[in-house]
Amino acid sequence: MIIKEFIKVLKQGHSMFHSISEIALTESLQIFRAFELREGESVRIGGFAGDLLLVVMGRVEAASIRGEKIRVLAPEDTSDKPLLLPEYPQLIAITALEDSYICHLDIDAYSYLLAFEDAVKDVKTSGRYDFDLVKAMSASTAFRRLPIEYIEDAIKSIKEEEVKAGEEIISDGKDIKAFYMIASGKAEVLRLNPESGELEKTDELISGDEIGEEAIIMAAKSPCTVRMVEDGTVFAMDVAKFREILQKPLLEEIVPEVARAMYNNGYQFVDVRFVEEHEESHIKGSINVPLFDIMKRTVEFDKDKEYVVYCRSGRRSAVAAFKLRQLNIHAVSLRGGIKAWTDNDLLEP
Q1: pLDDT digit string (tens) for 145-162?
Q2: Where in the chain is the domain with CATH 2.60.120.10?
Q3: Could you tell me the end-to-end alpha-carbon distance of the chain, in angstroms, rounded to an integer?
Q4: Superfamily assignment of 130-246 in CATH?
């Protein structure tokens, strides 16, 4: 099966992928590993805590490496309730009962992709949508570090500018006016040779490469000259806006000690992990609303109530809390997730 067909079947059969475009999935293949198994073939899989297994086509038997049978799984079994993988070094043996395709999902990467797709849709709705820009943003090391709630603001703040061959984007020893990313064309990096006093080419930049990030963060002059060697375009964000976005405070998070006090005061806890994760262990009294389902179930949230949202590590809950706050539902995220929760008397089962 070619990857395009695999993604199409994955989207059709698993609701958690319905809202993510085929383009986004194709561009983000690192979120999952696809395995093709012929009838009778086996593979041993483990993962980081919270990683999931989906059956995309066929039927498989999942068992511990000791040979203890767990269950037989088909696509309908993992559509809304994927199999929770054991954490390395533990492994699970998957044996194909017929020709099958399975998917090992990196849940943290999936959560970010889901939220990024929502941010893109918001930008598209606002009438300012540039796929090349969004694609470049998703690959940018500068913006990849941003909390998802600031991605949309960043995308809306960038302008596309035409640049001509020979034009200097930044100049050695001078102030940097903006953070740049090359959209098209090529540029050369020139640095001053202290012995000759001449600028010498040290590197070449192409589409997707960034310019000026470190100097802006350090409030320093440009350490080099970047000059276009052919006509092209750059994405630019002025320095003040770049600093403002990178220095914004994170979404409201609370430490476990504060969360315990909120629990004792009747705050509603919401577990945004998958059903199988929730069933394995959860905070007593919490309701389970998986992240990919949260926007479809907003009617279940009361705007007069206050919510503490949690997941495994805090990443999915930050996304969920942000989405709820956009709808004027007061929600805070538990920092560190259930991994950081030490009150075992409040965990079940």
Answers
A1: 566 566 667 777 888 899
A2: 3-106, 130-246
A3: 41
A4: Jelly Rolls (2.60.120.10)
Residue type, 242: F
- Contact between residue 268 and residue 304 where contact means Cβ atoms under 8 Å apart: no
Per residue in 236-283, pLDDT tens?
988 888 877 766 654 678 999 999 999 999 999 999 988 888 988 899
Contact 250, 147 (CB under 8 A): yes
CATH topology of domain 3-106: Jelly Rolls (2.60.120)
Strands 199-205 and 92-96: unpaired
CB 251 within 8 A of CB 326: no
Confidence of residue 30 (pLDDT cuts 50, 70, 90): low
Q: Which burial class, exposed, middle or buried, applies to 193 when counting CB atoms under 10 A from its CB (0-12, 13-18, 19+)?
A: exposed
Q: How far are the Cα atoms of 135, 145, 169 from residue 139, in angstroms, in the given order?
A: 7, 11, 21
Mean pLDDT for the stretch of residues 40-61 = 85
> What local confidence, expressed as pLDDT, does residue 120 receive?
64
Residue 100 pLDDT > 90: yes
On the question of pLDDT at 192 being above 70, the answer is yes
Angle, CA of 330, 111 and 266, to the nearest 5°: 30
With a cut of 60, say whether residue 127 has pLDDT above it.
Answer: no
Hey, what are 191's tokens?
Answer: 């640095």
With a pLDDT cut of 90, the percent of the chain lying above it is 32
Domain 253-348: give its CATH code. 3.40.250.10
Q: At what angle do helices 131-139 and 107-125 cross, to 10 degrees?
A: 150
Q: HSE (CB half, 13 Å, CA atoms) of 4?
A: 0
> Which contiguous run of DSSP H or E holds residue 242?
helix 239-246
- What amino acid occupies position 146? L
Whole-angstrom Cα Rg for the chain: 24
3-state secondary structure of 80: coil
The pTM for the full model equals: 0.55
Cβ 55 vs Cβ 10: under 8 Å: no
- Compute CA distances 266 → 55, 271, 285, 294, 307, whole Å: 39, 16, 10, 21, 10
